């Protein structure tokens, strides 16, 4: 790059040597992950580190949200948002209020961290860069998540509410959380080194990857509804395996109990598909990164299915629901990284 005041001869000599990293006319997603003005490698590593730790904090916030549901603390601040019982800091709070208020505080901190990550991405990477795209998507989805949380509170879809509206909101919440985690994973991946995506010409590999992601989200949606049912209508200990996932038809059976069987059946089918599809993607692409993430996905699917069986056998205790959710989120991240590795353009 030329500094102001450089001789015109130098400009003539360098005019024919164009740096594709700084060429604003180049395709938006055919750009690597190097920051603007090339050398600021320190800035790139800072974004990479920040997005990695923020991804870990995302897992914490997600699990904390599930803990709020399991403990029935969602109504701890009443139907007030963003205040808690009409106060900025609640006085003489109950245990449920402390749990809900702490969740809101950690979520608020998360929003500030996402905003800081976006600022770093804007300062370090040019417009249209994958890191910027991921950071912007992370911010937008974080705001959407906050609106979902506000809606649940304001509409009273918390604590013991067992309405269809709450079940639908839980499914939407899961989709939003998955997209948020995926966007942040993209930010971390793209900031690691010079990388770009090449979507065209992927054929069956592209379809297999779409199937993996869509299937996993569908399983997550049914899992969110099933987890709500397990919390509000727990299975009696000592029941046989079939009774734990089914309910006898009758006017007294709630729809959350009727839907309980949907998640394990869908999880088994999608899990088998993901296992086979991930192995086929790895066989079709000899790159080491693709094989590595395909292995993690297949291992993760097996472990998650085992965890699901244990969760059913134990009648879905709260702690096991958290373990199941954590494993599921980690496998989702692995699926996103497999997709990015398989779609990465050759250097």
What does this structure look like?
This protein is mainly alpha-helical and 347 residues long. It is 67% helix and 0% strand. It has eleven helices and no strands. It has helices spanning 8-15, 41-70, 95-124, 130-154, 164-190, 203-232, 241-245, 255-258, 262-284, 288-313, 318-343. The chain is flat, with a radius of gyration of 23 Å. Mean pLDDT is 85; it is low at 1-42.
Gyration radius, in Å: 23 Å
Q: Tell me how many strands there are.
A: 0
N- and C-termini, Cα separation: 23 Å
Q: H/E series, N to C?
A: HHHHHHHHHHH
> What is the typical, i.e. mean, pLDDT?
85
How large is the share of residues in beta strands?
under 5%
Topology of helices and strands:
Blueprint lengths: L7 H8 L25 H30 L24 H30 L5 H25 L9 H27 L12 H30 L8 H5 L9 H4 L3 H23 L3 H26 L4 H26 L4
Helix pairs in contact: 2-3, 2-5, 2-11, 3-4, 4-5, 5-6, 5-11, 6-9, 6-11, 9-10, 10-11
In short:
The chain has 347 residues and is mainly α. Helix content is 67%, strand content 0%.
Question: What structural keywords apply?
Answer:
disordered N terminus; 347 residues; 11 helices; mainly alpha
């Amino acid at each position: 790059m030329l500094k102001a005041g450089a001789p015109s001869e130098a400009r003539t000599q360098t005019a024919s040597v164009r740096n594709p990293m700084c060429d604003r006319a180049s395709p938006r997603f055919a750009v690597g992950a190097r920051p603007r003005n090339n050398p600021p490698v320190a800035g790139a590593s800072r974004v990479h580190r920040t997005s990695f730790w923020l991804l870990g904090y995302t897992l914490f916030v997600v699990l904390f949200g599930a803990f709020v549901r399991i403990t029935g603390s969602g109504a701890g601040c009443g139907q007030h948002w963003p205040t808690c019982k009409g106060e900025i800091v609640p006085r003489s709070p109950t245990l449920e209020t402390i749990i809900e208020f702490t969740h809101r505080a950690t979520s608020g901190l998360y929003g500030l961290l996402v905003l800081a990550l976006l600022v770093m991405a804007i300062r370090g990477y040019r417009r249209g860069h994958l890191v910027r795209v991921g950071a912007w998507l992370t911010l937008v989805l974080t705001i959407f998540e906050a609106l979902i949380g506000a809606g649940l509170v304001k509409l009273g879809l918390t604590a013991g509410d067992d309405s269809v509206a709450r079940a639908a909101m839980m499914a939407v919440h899961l989709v939003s959380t998955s997209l948020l985690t995926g966007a942040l994973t993209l930010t971390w991946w793209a900031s690691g080194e010079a990388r770009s995506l090449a979507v065209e010409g992927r054929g069956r590999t592209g379809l297999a990857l779409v199937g993996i992601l869509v299937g996993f989200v569908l399983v997550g949606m049914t899992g969110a509804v099933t987890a709500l049912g397990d919390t509000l209508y727990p299975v009696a200990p000592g029941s046989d395996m079939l009774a734990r996932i089914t309910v006898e038809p009758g006017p007294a059976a709630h729809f959350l109990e009727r839907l309980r069987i949907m998640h394990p059946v869908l999880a088994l089918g999608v899990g088998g598909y993901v296992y086979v599809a991930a192995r086929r993607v790895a066989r079709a692409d000899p790159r080491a990164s693709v094989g590595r993430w395909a292995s993690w996905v297949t291992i993760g699917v097996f472990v998650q299915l085992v965890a699901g069986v244990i969760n059913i056998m134990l009648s879905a205790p709260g702690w096991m629901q958290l373990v199941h959710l954590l494993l599921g989120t980690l496998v989702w991240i692995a699926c996103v990284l497999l997709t990015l590795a398989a779609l990465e353009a050759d250097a």
